Amino acid sequence: MNRLLMGWVCSALMAVQLPSCQFSANIETLLSPPRLTEEQEQIYQALQLSEGQSVSLKYPKSGTRLSAFLVEDLDEDGADEAIVFYEANRSLAEENPLRVSLLDQKDDKWRVVKDYTTAGGEVERVDVTHLGNNPKKNLIISYSMVDGAERTAEVFQYVGGSLERTLSIPFSILSISDLNGDGNQELFVASAAKPSSPAAAYIYSQTEDGSILPPVHVFLPESFADVSRMSSGILPYDGRMLPALYLDCASGATTVQTAVLIYDDERLSLLYADSADRPFSTARPSGCQAMDIDFDGEVEIPVQSAFYGYQIDAGTPALTMTGWYVCRGGQLMRESVSYYAVQNNYVFILPSRWEGKVTAAMESEEIVFYEYDQQANAADGTPVKKTELLRLAVVNDPAAADAMEQDGYLMLRRKYGNYYMAKRTVQGHALSITDSELILAMRII
Predict the structure, then answer these.
(1) For the chain, which has fewer Cβ within 10 Å, the N-terminal or C-terminal residue?
(2) How far is CA 82 from its chain centroid?
């Protein structure tokens, strides 16, 4: 395959990968606040006039609304209201400096209506959305403390010219989506374990009059200290394809395990979690995350084991192989196996014909795949290697990448400042990998 064709295939594959946020900016841009629009400048001046002192704008750290200014018709009466996140130098040292200011317009001029204290030191994200059957919009603000250790979400409704707080909840993970496929959105939060209760997951919704319904919830296993990441996908359930939540939960200082939740018939159920009667555990290093590895809309769970051919009890460390499992009827079923390079942000899916026949080893910072002797082991418990099939390497020096291409390596991807290189070391063998298989097997994450 020539390099032009390879480039086209790589571009096509990258187009279907999980979305990511990409931007470019120089140091001066990153250190300077965004330029205000004319309307934002008017709102800012009204805020300064009200405060009578200098104020510092605060910007949400994530989400789609990344401005310190939120200008929106919160009560859907045809006129916009404004929300500003800011800090002010206040006289009371114990008072939280992060504030939320509500402004509206009178005679085409902005004025501050009310100023609110907050539940944190940083604005994590801001959402404006409907929940449940409530036809009115909610303003949902997520906060964290400056050290990021604690997070709180607050839900507001704009009623009678002011913001009414309807809910304030601590959380580790927060998501707003249609969790049961009924066309309405719900608020999902997961919280860490406390001395008095285990980690738990909650779903909040609203009635037509805006009342928050009592949350449905499920407690997570006692071994789960906190929830570090959430993925959403679909899975077969009771003859239907339903949304599912996959929680990567901290079960140790550097390890995670995965739990699968489903919300159906107004019940939140723990569909899968590791337990003593399971055939294996999803426990793994915390950087190894559940994801939709094959882009089919269903999340796969990584399960780690020794690569084929290694004897675990021989005393010699074995290279780790990662299997990817889907949840079926409360059990896990393997779909594929791979080498998962967490530090280098890639997963290499082994061709199905390699299963049980090909092993791998780390050699001079390269991953090398070999056909191995399935009937014997070396004295140290490592596989007896036969035919070398493939080498994978990651370099961040363009000169090194060019030199490797001269030596027969293919550049599969270029991302994160890295060059992902591969060299097929044998052809015509029953286990040889083709160029197209090689490109499809490499997943940059």
Answers:
(1) N
(2) 30
DSSP 312: G
User: In the structure encoding, which two tokens stand for residue 230, read together?
Assistant: 């959430």
Write the CB contacts of 276 (distance below 8 Å, at least 6 apart in sequence).
Answer: none
Amino acid found at 113: V
Sign of the CA dihedral running 390, 363, 255, 356? positive
Amino acid at 418: N
| CA–CA distance, 164 with 167 (Å, rounded to integer) | 9
Q: Look-up: residue for tokens 């591969």?
A: 422
Q: One-letter amino acid identity for 411?
A: M
Tokens of 342: 């967490």
pLDDT tens column, 229-277 = 999 999 999 899 999 999 999 998 899 999 999 999 999 999 999 999 9
Helix H or strand E segment including 268: strand 267-272
Instruction: Tell how many helices (H) and how many strands (E) occur in the chain.
Output: 5, 28
Determine the Cα–Cα distance for residues 401 and 15; give it in Å rounded to an integer: 23
Confidence band for 45, pLDDT divided at 50, 70 and 90: very high
- Sign of the alpha-carbon dihedral angle for 26, 17, 357, 258: positive
E-only strand ranges, 192-254 = 200-204, 216-219, 226-237, 240-250
Q: Which residue has better confidence, 281 or 95? A: 281
Burial of 363 (0-12, 13-18, 19+ CB in 10 A): exposed
Residues in Cβ contact with 84 at an 8 Å cutoff, skipping those fewer than 6 apart: 43, 44, 47, 57, 68, 69, 70, 100, 101, 103
Contact indicator for 57, 86 with CB cutoff of 8 Å: yes
Torsion of CA 375, 377, 383, 386, to 10 degrees: -60
Please give the DSSP secondary-structure letter assigned to residue 35: P
pLDDT at 155 over 70: yes
- Dihedral of CA atoms 409, 411, 416, 417 in degrees, nearest 10, equals 70
Reported as a single tens digit per residue, the pLDDT across 7-35 is 433 443 333 333 333 333 343 334 456 78
% helix / strand / coil in the chain, to the nearest 5?
10, 45, 40
Over residues 340-396, the pLDDT tens digits come to 999 999 999 999 999 999 999 999 999 999 999 999 999 899 999 999 999 999 999
pLDDT given for residue 93 in this prediction: 53
For 148, left (φ over 0), alpha (ψ -120 to 50), or beta?
Answer: left
Q: Which residue has the tokens 């199905």?
A: 352
What is the residue whose two structure tokens read 């009204």? 46
